[in-house]
Write a structure and sequence with these properties.
Distance between the termini: 38 Å
Strand order of the largest sheet: 6-5-7-4-8
């Protein structure tokens, strides 16, 4: 079940501007203006590794009794880009993507139905605390700061990367933020990318260089539009998302490489009684091969993990 906010003029403009292009998301940053996503000409793969998944009684038994009795969970999903989560056939049709398949597979192992609501990233984490959602997805990277208020159950290892227009020959690779000095960087609102760029903004001054500028966008379509129009020089976003985008000729972007890896997980309010069951469900999917088939479907096997973890420390 998906509820979408009213479309604003900005969303409409971004959607029209991006009909032939791709949008992306951050770790995580969702795009609720998904008309552009649906029009990007990226059909979902047709194989369905989730179809054969069945309930596993020993795993479902880890759920609280009231949850098993209700049989449903409310999930807030950030729907923004392939391969994570997007609308291949328009916003009035079902979403697809790696995060969608993994959440659906976990729910089947647990014998639950998901009540999915499309929401922007910056609204999902606070809503977990208020009880609006039981769980959230949206390429949520595990960070020290988020662990103070959120519980995570990991399911992939993704992280931070950079991309530029494909005709930009001045930026070859970014392994140090000082390589961004004097440039304008675009990032999603409320993301690990915005936090990283803001926290280290003094690196250029310390190096005697002109500071980089950070422009924050609440919608992913707007970030890519800004890059194509030359209003920003570089995008900072997810490794998998930027790789996927750069592989699509219509995006006219070039992936600059990985900057910082992060574990990515299902998000819960602190102290949630659901985490053990979710971890066991992910581990079951890893053990029976479904997990690998889902990642192979979406081209993200390089992000595979060997076992799920609850609240691992942020990668150094």
């Amino acid at each position: 079940m998906t509820h979408r906010p009213p479309r604003t003029p900005l969303r409409a403009i971004a959607a029209l501007a991006l009909l032939p292009l791709l949008t992306l998301t951050a770790c995580g940053s969702g795009d609720t203006g998904s008309a552009a996503v649906g029009a990007q000409g990226s059909p979902a793969p047709t194989d369905d590794p989730v179809a054969s998944v069945r309930e596993v009684d020993s795993v479902a038994a880890l759920l609280p009794a009231d949850v098993r009795k209700a049989g449903t969970l409310k999930i807030g999903s950030s729907i923004g880009f392939p391969p994570g989560a997007y609308y291949p056939n328009g916003a009035d049709k079902a979403p697809a993507g790696q995060d969608i398949d993994l959440a659906d597979a976990v729910a089947k192992v647990l014998g639950l139905e998901l009540e999915r609501q499309d929401a922007s990233f910056e609204t999902i984490l606070p809503a977990l605390g208020s009880g609006k959602y039981d769980v959230g997805t949206g390429n949520f990277g595990v960070t020290t700061e988020r662990l103070k208020t959120i519980d995570f159950v990991t399911y992939i290892n993704d992280g931070q990367g950079f991309a530029v227009k494909d005709d930009n020959d001045s930026v070859k690779k970014v392994t140090d933020l000082k390589q961004l000095c004097g440039l304008t960087i675009g990032a999603g609102a409320g993301t690990t990318f915005e936090a990283t760029l803001t926290a280290q903004k003094d690196v250029c001054a310390k190096a005697g260089k002109k500071p980089y500028d950070v422009k924050v966008y609440s919608e992913n379509a707007a970030t890519l539009t800004a890059l194509q129009q030359g209003r920003i020089d570089v995008i900072m976003s997810t490794i998998n998302g930027l790789r996927y985008q750069a592989a699509q000729p219509a995006s006219h972007t070039r992936f600059l490489g990985e900057y910082h890896r992060l574990d990515v997980g299902f998000a819960f309010k602190k102290g949630s009684p659901l985490t053990k069951a979710f971890r066991a469900a992910v581990d079951h999917l890893i053990e029976d091969g479904t997990y690998r088939r889902i990642l192979a479907k979406w081209g993200t096997t390089a992000s595979a993990i060997d076992a799920s973890r609850i609240n691992p420390p942020e990668h150094a």
